[in-house]
Amino acid sequence: MYAMHDALRRELAHLDRIATSADRDPRHVLATAAGWTLLKKALHAHHTAEDDALWPSLRKNLAGRPKDLALVEVTPAERAAIALVIQAIDDALADPDSDSLRFCQLADALTRGLAGHLNHEEQTALPLIQRVLTVEQWGRFGRVHAHHIDQDAPLLLPWLLDGAEEPMTRRLLARLPAPEYAACTARWMPAYAVLDRWGPGTAA
User: Fold this and answer.
1) Which of 84, 81, 82, 74 has its CA nearest to residue 120?
2) Could you tell me which of 27, 39, 199 has the C-alpha nearest to residue 103?
3) Directed axis angle between helix 34-49 and helix 66-94, to 10°?
4) Using CA atoms, how far apart are residues 204 and 195, in angstroms rounded to an integer?
5) How far apart are CA 56 and CA 147, in angstroms?
6) Domains in the chain: boundaries
């Protein structure tokens, strides 16, 4: 969870840098940038896994605790707002007549909204998860999360590990089956290392 949040924050910093750059039109960068595609894929996989295996277990374990449940139920509204902003950005990218100022405002709204959502999860939901979720339930979430990124694993696994501290990298790699570990270390990570995620013409 923390590795995913750190990776998302890293990409938001790139998005903010591009949106506020005076040297190039951010719309032209994002329209073909692999970083924008990877950010959306990772966020979709992460949120889908939470919906499938995390929040249902947490709600079940918090039955009869309305104050704690209320903290959890804030997240769907936050995520719905984030999804609307992402769609608005994609619509602006597809519209040749879109206004550059409006686009920058949308990028800022995504950066602030997603950063706030991640902070909220870490400050409220994760402490609850650590207290009430069983080892079995947390393990299932991990498996479901892995399943949702499986199709894009050659890009998303190195993306997730990019910039992670060595202990975190070792822990995440150690969980991979032997064939995926070999592929990730021998092929996926070297290929990712030369990818200019936020350069033009690099769409994943």
Assistant:
1) 74
2) 27
3) 150
4) 10
5) 17
6) 2-193
How many angstroms separate the CA atoms of 144 and 151, rounded? 13
Tokens of 1: 């969870």
| Third-level CATH fold of 2-193 | Four Helix Bundle (Hemerythrin (Met), subunit A) (1.20.120)
The residue assigned the tokens 């979709």 is 44
Which residue in this structure is represented by tokens 């995926």?
180
Q: Which of 193, 118, 155, 145 is nearest to 37 (CA)?
A: 155
pLDDT in tens, the chain (204 residues): 999 999 999 999 999 998 888 677 888 888 889 999 999 999 999 999 999 999 999 999 999 999 999 888 888 889 999 999 999 999 999 998 888 888 889 999 999 999 999 999 999 999 999 999 999 999 999 999 999 999 899 999 999 999 999 999 999 999 899 999 999 999 999 999 999 999 865 565
